[in-house]
Amino acid sequence: MVHFKNRYIVMEVFIDAGRAERDPVILTQSNILKVIRDSIQLNFGECGLAASIGSLQVKYVNPLTKICIIRMSREDHQKVLSAITMVRSIGNIPISFNLLDVSARDDQTIQFLPLGTIRACKKAALECDEAKFEQYKMAAGDRITPDIIQAVQSCFEKIRGLES
């Protein structure tokens, strides 16, 4: 039996605030995956795209906090990370990706987790998402609706439900 070794990364998407107000962009798994694939093809050609496309997948996106988890093969993770740093826009909206700091230590079991595992990324994504949502709640004040709270809670559950 063949065991595929994947890397998982937690990214934050920064959207140009001035342009996003006029032309709002909604982050989805499909449009993030499309810009990453386009960047791989542009920078590494058809062969680079074919090599990395097998395991490349956007596992999670929160459109409110703009946090995402991306899976890629261990062999191609440097190529994919390079391509991600070269992404400059989704459609005509300028964006940039920020690789978030992934904790390599699991405090409950006092074991060191290798960077890039799904367990480490789930923990980091959940912490970042919760912190960003707290900032959003303070900024939004009383404009926050129960629908928004329910949508964010469902996003948190999606993170917890990712394969272990």
Could you list some keywords that capture this structure?
single chain; 164 residues; alpha+beta; five-stranded antiparallel sheet; two-stranded antiparallel sheet; 5 helices
Task: Characterize the structure shown.
This protein is an alpha+beta fold and 164 residues long. 47% of the residues lie in helices and 22% in strands. It has helices spanning 17-22, 29-52, 77-85, 118-140, 146-160, and strands at 6-15, 57-62, 67-73, 89-90, 93-99, 105-106, 111-112. The strands form two sheets. It has a five-stranded antiparallel sheet with strand order 2-3-1-5-4, sandwiched between helices. It has a two-stranded antiparallel ribbon with strand order 6-7. Strand 6 (105-106) and strand 7 form a beta hairpin. The two termini are 19 Å apart. Residues 102-112 have low confidence and may be disordered.
